[in-house]
Amino acid sequence: MDRYVLSLFSSAGIGELGIKASDLKILLSNELMESRCALYRENYPETECLCGDIWKMKDQILQHWENNRVGSPFLIYATPPCQGMSFNSVGKRLQEIRRGRAPKDDPRNQLIIPTVEIVKKLRPQWLLLENVQGMQNTIIPVGNGEYKNIIDYIRDELAPDYIGGPEVVNCADYGIPQTRVRLITIFTRSDSGKRHYLKNKTFLPNRTHSQIKTDETKCWVTLREAIGLLPPLSAEKGKNQDPSIPWHCVPIMKPEKFWWIQNTPPNETAYNNQCAECGYDKNPRHGMRFVDGRHTYKNDTPIYCQRCGALLPRPTMVDKLTGKRRRIKGFDSAYKRMSWDAPAPTLTQNLQVETSDKKIHPSQNRTLSVYEGMRLQTISDYEYSFSIDGKTITPNMCCKVIGESVPPRLIELVCNSILKIEATEEVDAYE
After folding, report:
1. pTM (2 decimals)?
2. Is residue 216 scored above 90 in pLDDT?
3. Dist. CA 68–CA 25, nearest whole Å
4. Separation CA 85–CA 9 (nearest Å)
5. pLDDT of 100 above 90
6. What is the rounded CA–CA span in Å between residue 188 and residue 159?
7. Distance between CA atoms of 412 and 76, rounded to whole angstroms?
8. Which of 148-162, 257-271, 285-299, 383-397 has the lowest mean pLDDT?
9. Boundaries of every domain in the chain
10. pLDDT digit string (tens) for 238-247?
11. How far apart are CA 213 and CA 60, in angstroms?
């Protein structure tokens, strides 16, 4: 029997690779951005993809589903935009609010409202939401001047038919070579699912990996295991790509930036680089500090060697107003090398930007390649075309699509767990 899925906020369909691998059929999807819809249609020609704002498209989504005459969805899968819920965004937003430059309520956080309205109309057996960890602490306006925690809102709107809730998941705990922490929220009205949840208090599969090996788990998959055998690259012209591996390419760095990275030791940031002239290694490090309860960077980190006076290979620039060289503002997670012996940090849309958090290759003078991003996000484990109408998209767009997606391997494991619950609980109930 076919089990049908409705996907909301589908982006380019990276997470849906896991749904498809679980033999679930994605009948209908909705995404705001036309460029993402084009990629989605390229990879899911059997799925009807409706492009547009979910607030305006809600009735069309409901009508299109009804027109398919397949009954209620087995699963509604939704990944509302997370920028308004992420800890980084919240911090920036609070600053803007304090300065009187931003409204109190981020409209992106309210996209759960049309999502829940669609769920209530179509009554899927299962609802799967994927978002950042901060979602569980997000407060949204629900009308009449009233505010409510977003998880409480979902639970109250779907009660008493649905039960379930959110769980924080580290992707590394499931063999994905990336410490990407996500919030997986699952609700169900399935009798099988309800029996399972009341008994086990979770819908998720058991963890297969952990930071330290145990009797039940393997060690996390490290960066060395995931990408250590790939051909070397360098952020220099003529050395920045390997034609034998599609997408194994990196941007070329300006000579000065390359000098900073070239002098950056393992697990370090260029902000802490020592003298390349005399070798003096006691110049003060960059470091962090707290100001008014906020985490910020130091303003007095030296850029010249305290012994010989030479310019240190640290991020600096010539100020256009004064003509003098000054340190580039930034946290000590920028221009920082990743560790070979740990999973990658969370990949973002800036996975090829050296100023982004811990995006420098562990030993080579470059950022991650696009292909390495695909491997760390587990996209390379599936069939996916990064082209539209036969034309390959740009590396920049490819990085954006990778960074805004969820590892499909995680979604496949979650879907398989749901299907296993259905099969196991149905047998138990019959017996």
Report:
1. 0.91
2. yes
3. 13
4. 15
5. no
6. 10
7. 14
8. 285-299
9. 4-218+407-430
10. 999 999 999 9
11. 50
Lowest mean pLDDT segment, chosen from 90-99, 103-112, 361-370, 390-399: 90-99
Residue 177, pLDDT score: 98
- Residues 6+ away with beta carbon under 8 Å from 131: 79, 80, 82, 85, 182, 183, 185
In the structure, how many helices (H) and strands (E) does the chain have?
12, 17
pLDDT of 191 over the 90 cut = yes
**CA 380 to each of CA 124, 371, 408, 422, 430: distance values in angstroms, whole numbers, following the listed order:** 30, 8, 10, 29, 40
Spatial distance between the Cα atoms of 11 and 31, rounded to a whole number of angstroms: 6
Rounded CA separation 155/160 (Å): 9
Mean pLDDT score across all residues of the chain: 92
pLDDT digits (tens, 9 = 90+) for 329-352: 988 899 999 999 999 999 999 999
**Which of the four CATH numbers 3.50.50.60, 3.40.50.150, 3.40.190.10, 3.30.70.20 does domain 4-218+407-430 have?**
3.40.50.150
Q: Does residue 107 have a pLDDT over 90?
A: no
With H, G, I as helix, E, B as strand and everything else as coil, classify residue 402.
helix
Whole-angstrom CA distances from 412 to 269, 374, 399 are 36, 16, 22
Tell me which DSSP letter residue 355 carries: T
**Residue recorded with tokens 């407060």:** 139
Is there a contact between 150 and 82 (Cβ–Cβ < 8 Å)? no
Location of structure tokens 């963890």: 207
pLDDT of residue 424: 85
Pull the structure tokens for residue 101: 């430059």
CA-wise closest residue to 171 among 415, 419, 411, 421: 411
- In this structure, what are the phi and psi dihedrals at residue 289, rounded to the nearest 5 degrees? -155, 165
User: Across-strand partners of 30?
Assistant: 8, 50
Q: Cα separations (Å) of 95 from 89, 198, 289, 332?
A: 10, 42, 18, 21
Burial of 314 from C-beta contacts in 10 A (0-12 / 13-18 / 19+)? buried
Please give the Cα distance from 194 to 3 (Å, whole number): 19
In angstroms, the CA 384 to CA 368 distance is 20
